[in-house]
Amino acid sequence: MSEAARTAPPRKLTIETEGLDWREREPVPLPATLVAAKHAFYERGYHGTSIRDIASRAGVSLPTLYYHHDNKLGILVELLEAAMTSVLAWVGAAIQSGRTPSEQLSNAIESIVLHMTSDLELASVAHEFRHLDSDDPRRETYVAMRTETEDLLADVIARGVESGEFHFEEDPKEVLRYLFGACQAVTTWYRPSGPRTPAEVAASYALISLRVVGARGHSDADRSPTDI
């Protein structure tokens, strides 16, 4: 079964990824009002941003803004969904392009970190998710896509363990939580003006993820003394 697990195709996606180059990152297309909100939320936070501020930045009147959006919380939901839709598509395409669990995990982590570093403002919107009440039905689409993304990586990790390609003693759920947390934390320190490009940071995190799961050829046990 180990060979079957190693070469088994990843789980099917609910989103289209055909023809998507997950390493090529163009800004996620957004209407002017959402671009303005993205900038404002990043600079001032959700609570520090007023609906008037968003309208002013977008160059539209309040009636026009309300014609297109319910309210400020509705705008936040739209940004969350736009970001998560892109992440799910990129991660799905990244996993599908890998042949083995190691390649698939590496690609997926690289893809997530590219999202975090290529558009800090949009990626940082995820931190504002806490402003949605737990019983708010507007959470459902975002949460479903986030869960699907997590399930994709969980499936890769499970196949890596089953095939013997990954070796670690920790609970796979904790490993997955650690990897996601590390990726999400990139927005707290990365700055485009720094010395490292998005691609360099993403590649570094991809390599680290393989060491975390003890991927064959990447664990400490596989490294010679001269490599340490």
From TrEMBL:
Protein name (database record): TetR/AcrR family transcriptional regulator
A GO molecular-function descriptor: transcription cis-regulatory region binding
Domain HTH tetR-type: 27-87
Residue ranges of DNA binding: 50-69
Species of origin: Gordonia terrae
InterPro entries: Homeodomain-like_sf, HTH-type_TetR-like_transc_reg, HTH_TetR, KstR2_TetR_C, Tet_transcr_reg_TetR-rel_C_sf
Keyword ATP-binding on entry: no
Database matches in SUPFAM superfamilies: Homeodomain-like, Tetracyclin repressor-like, C-terminal domain
The keyword Transferase is assigned to this record: no
Domain of life: Bacteria
The entry's keywords: DNA-binding
Coiled-coil regions, chain positions: none
